[in-house]
Specification:
Blueprint lengths: L12 H12 L5 H14 L4 H8 L3 H14 L18 H6 L5 H11 L46
Helix pairs in contact: 1-2, 2-3, 2-4, 3-4
């Protein structure tokens, strides 16, 4: 028979108050809210399958957060740092000035919030020889009528 997993009792009143506050928070991040609710529901006597059904998550998710809470308390409910790909260029190397490939320039500039292309305006030009659009392509082109016509008749008598 599998071992029944429950959240350990709160270390002190402040820890219990913080977990219950997280569980009922409307403006906290959703993942923290869910983790607080997992612990609070476990304290109320629900078992892992019932907590998973109540929160709409997998049983393994409930087990993971209960085990981490039991081991580390509130700190166990936080995300672990260090996930994701490590940077290929260290901050020290960036500060020294390094030789990088052309494909990395755009990514680095975007990270730093620098626009790497200037905005082009096709309406105005600083070139003194630039001439704006004329009236038409030739004198034989007819001008359009100035009156707007409706695409559908709105009068049912016609």
């Amino acid at each position: 028979m599998p071992k029944i997993l429950r959240a350990r009792a709160a270390a002190d009143a402040a820890e219990e108050r913080t977990v219950r506050k997280l569980a009922g928070a409307r403006h906290a991040p959703a993942d923290w809210n869910q983790r607080g609710r997992i612990v609070a529901l476990s304290w109320s006597g629900l078992r892992v399958p019932a907590i998973a059904r109540e929160l709409g998550c997998h049983e393994q998710t409930v087990r993971r957060w209960l085990v981490r809470f039991n081991a580390s308390g509130l700190d166990g409910l936080a995300d672990l740092g260090g996930q994701g790909r490590l940077r290929r260029i260290t901050e020290a190397a960036r500060a020294q000035g390094i030789d990088i490939h052309r494909s990395q320039v755009r990514r680095i500039l975007r990270q730093e919030g620098v626009r790497w292309r200037r905005t082009r305006s096709w309406i105005r030009s600083k070139d003194p020889d630039f001439a704006g659009k004329g009236r038409g392509s030739s004198s034989s082109t007819r001008t359009r009528p100035g009156v707007r016509r409706s695409s559908a008749s709105t009068n049912s008598v016609r």
